[in-house]
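pipeline/complex-builder :: batch 7 item 3
reading input block
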Amino acid sequence: MVKPSPRSRAEPATLPATAWAVLGVLSFGEEPTGYEIRKWAEHILRFFYWSPAMSQIYAELKRLEKAGYATSRTDVAADGRPRRVYAITPDGRDALAAWASDAPIGPPVLKHGPALRVWLGHLAGPERLREVVTEQRDRAQRLAEEAEHSRRVAVTGTGWAHAEIVARWAVRYHEAERDLAELMLADLDELAGRGAPG
Amino acid sequence: MVKPSPRSRAEPATLPATAWAVLGVLSFGEEPTGYEIRKWAEHILRFFYWSPAMSQIYAELKRLEKAGYATSRTDVAADGRPRRVYAITPDGRDALAAWASDAPIGPPVLKHGPALRVWLGHLAGPERLREVVTEQRDRAQRLAEEAEHSRRVAVTGTGWAHAEIVARWAVRYHEAERDLAELMLADLDELAGRGAPG
DNA sequence: CGTTGCATGTAAGGTGTTACATGATTAC
DNA sequence: GTAATCATGTAACACCTTACATGCAACG
């Protein structure tokens, strides 16, 4: 009696989330280069998930091709230079859909450096702490604005409604981060015994 | 002319953030075992930074000892069993303080699985999507409550004001996550063209 | 007498980073 | 001319996880 080989097409073929994210980019129907995939990731994914190195994207593409979930062909760009473009395969679409609906979803992973620094606040001066949290507030504000910009660009005409919903979520998320930093600043000021900053 | 050896005591000795977090636990002055360090991490750190495997903690402790930032001794517990307890050294305290005030702080790292799933919403049914986001909302609510509980326990009598400020931040953060999920749920319902859920 | 908690590690492997290497085209 | 952007990869390494291995104590 022959044991069925592990990883037959029954189960959703365990790939790292990053691979599914890359495949997700391909699922929008373009035929991007690795480089363009990265730009897409920078454009929207970075606000809620991901900002991988180029080399990582190429590695995931290789993995996806090996799994039969993506194919590549050499395309000739407008300037005549050859470039390698990728597309999702029917198998890849099936696997991605299966993953999207069936794979268990872990809790969001958060590594909040600024919060870690405040937690160790007894080791740094109050000035420095204020600086750290102020930076965080400003960064969150900037990210909220960038996410909003990204949302407006992405929405026009594309009709990818879910992408827009997530973009709206991302804008609100970074606004919340900004407000949270502001509140923490107030708490720090209260601790330092001064009613007003500066 | 002899080049100064790299990593002399001038610069803050580049360790992974996890190592600093472990050293941070030691900086609160107890003499915990590796096991107890993990409990502490579970108690509060997990809400904003970290939830490492036991093996990782032991690895970091080894690294810290090698760097001269921590020492260990064999302590005899109440039941007579020997256990290895760790303490921060003066060098470790200096290095940690230097890190806390000087090391550059990167942006918070976020990998939001639920958001990634919604982004790929065109591949899953609306029911499933609702399920995912509802789970996320409930989890965030649970975490907010746990963080609040943790805050109350931590605060009483200890006088670690910064730890309390971060605990408050963590409570608010997870409440915000809960509200964000709720809003996304509303957006999803609107997309599905139904004014009321169910 | 079995499960949970306390306690300490090793080994293997996977995920992801930075640094390196290369080269054409476009914009200033 | 030189910097930035487009474009593609390899190699080395750092971080962190899971699985494994072990054993005592306390609780029911």
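note: Chain A has two domains: 17-102, 113-193.
queue -> next item
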